[in-house]
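ARCHIVE CARD
Drawer: 12
Card no.: 0347
Subject: one protein chain, sequence and derived structure
Cross-reference: see card 0346
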Amino acid sequence: MKIRILCIVLVILLVTGMLPAAALAGNEMQAWQTTLQKSYDYLMTQAEETTFSVGGNKGEWVVLGLLRNGADPAMEVFQRYVAAAESFITQNGENGRLDSDRSTLNSRVILALTAMGQDATNISGENLLTGLDDLDYMTAQGLNGGVWALIAVDCNPYTLQ
């Protein structure tokens, strides 16, 4: 008899414990969607009001954040990033490397440009993957450089020479 009462009490506790969680699930999703929209709006404001910088806070991460949230890659703000990236690559690209020490810069630019439908193997005549085939260059930043290089190479069916 005691076991039966204990089982009933446990079932009641279990069921009543799930009710608030089930009721909150809808509100949490709504709060999540609201937060996502606010983030999108903030990033779009940043993209529209500023000049894009390659390798900075107002560069690849803004582009990737907007694209990941459904922005159209043909929008004018993205064409400004492409122009900024092409200019940066022309001025700083040497043997496919945008920075002599930071391979993650190549990886971020590859990710952003590829997300917009660009071919990272030919941006202003530079193949941004060229630097990523050198293990010493990739790991100069430690493990992080290699991890981001793998992600960048895998974001499209790119191959290293």
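Annotation on reverse: The mean pLDDT is 81. Residues 40 and 71 are 9 Å apart (CA to CA).
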